[in-house]
Amino acid sequence: MTSADPVRTTVHLVRHGEVHNPDRVLYGRLPGYGLSDLGREMARLAAAHLAERDVVEVVSSPLERAQQTARPIAEAHELPVGTDERLTEAENAFEGRNVAGGKGLLREPRMFKYFLNPTKPSWGEPYVDLARRMRAAIDDARARSRGHESVLVSHQAPIWICRCALEGRRLWHDPRRRECTLASVTSLTYADDHLESIDYAEPAASLLAQAVPGAGA
Questions:
Q1: Which of the residue ranges 74-88, 100-114, 134-148 would you say has the lowest mean pLDDT?
Q2: How far is CA 9 from CA 48, 92, 142, 166, in A?
Q3: Which SUPFAM superfamilies match (predicted)?
Q4: Averaged over 85-111, what is the pLDDT?
Q5: Per residue in 102-130, pLDDT tens?
Q6: Cα 24 to chain center, whole Å?
Q7: Given Cys at both, which of 1, 13, 93, 122 links 5, Cβ 3.0 to 4.6 Å?
C-alpha cells in the first residue's frame, strides 16, 4: 500500500438467529427472548463465515438474542462482546401482541390508529431516526477499526432500513421483501470515508426452511 492508496475498512451487520417464540408474538424489545436451538446453530454458522476475516471488534445490540448471536463470533476472534444501544430493535406499538398475518391486530380497534401512516411508520420508531442511529453506530465502528473489520450484531429492521438509506432507496417498504434473513451478514466496505460496496451473505441458508414462521426481528 502506498500513501495514495485508500484505507479499506469493513463493517459487517449481522442479524441474530432464530428466537424461541412459541406464542409467535412480536417480541420487539421485550426481555427474555433468546435464541432457539436452531438459532444457536445459525449463530455458529455466522461465526464460521466470519472466522477468517480481519475482525478486531464485535459489538451487539443489548437484547439477549443479539448478544447470544455475537458470542460465538467474538469467541472465534478471542474478543469480548461490546454493547451499543444504537443497534437495538426498533420501537413498536404492537410489541407483545400476536401479529402473525395481522389477525391479532384486526381484532383490536384501538390499535387502528397506528396504521394511519405506514411511510413514517405510525406504529413505531420513525425510519429516518432508525437509519440515523444505525449510521452513527457504523461510523463509530469503522473509526475504531480503521483498516480492519468490525462486526455489529443487530436486528432485521435496523439493518434493512440502514441499508436502504445507504443505497439511496426510499425507507418505506414492504417488510416481506427485506433481504435480511436470520443470521445473515450485510457487509459494508469503505475506502477511506467512501462507501465502496455492500455485500450480502446468508451463512445459515441451509437452516432457514426449518425456522418457525412468526413475528419479530
A1: 100-114
A2: 20, 33, 6, 16
A3: Phosphoglycerate mutase-like
A4: 74
A5: 555 556 666 666 666 778 887 889 999 99
A6: 19
A7: 1
Cell of 89: 430493535
Residue 169 corresponds to which cell in the numbers above? 432507496
Domain extent listing, the chain: 8-210
Q: What is the DSSP string of the chain?
A: --TTSPPEEEEEEEE---B--TT----TT-TT--B-HHHHHHHHHHHHHHTTS-EEEEEE-SSHHHHHHHHHHHHHTT-PEEE-GGGSPPPBTTTTS--GGGHHHHT-GGGGGGGS-TTTTTTBS-HHHHHHHHHHHHHHHHHHTTTSEEEEEE-HHHHHHHHHHHTT--S---GGG-S--TT-EEEEEEETTEEEEEEEE-TTGGGGGGSPP-S--
Cell reading at 99: 401479529
Cβ-count burial of 163 within 10 angstroms (0-12 exposed, 13-18 middle, 19+ buried)?
buried
Q: What local confidence, expressed as pLDDT, does residue 106 receive?
A: 54
Q: pTM here?
A: 0.91
Between 113 and 160, the more confident residue is 160
Among 3-17, 74-88, 166-180, top mean pLDDT goes to 74-88
Hey, which CATH number is domain 8-210, 1.10.10.10, 3.90.1150.10, 2.40.40.20, 3.40.50.1240?
Answer: 3.40.50.1240
What are the strands of the beta sheet with 194-201, ordered from one edge? 81-83, 55-60, 149-154, 8-15, 185-191, 194-201
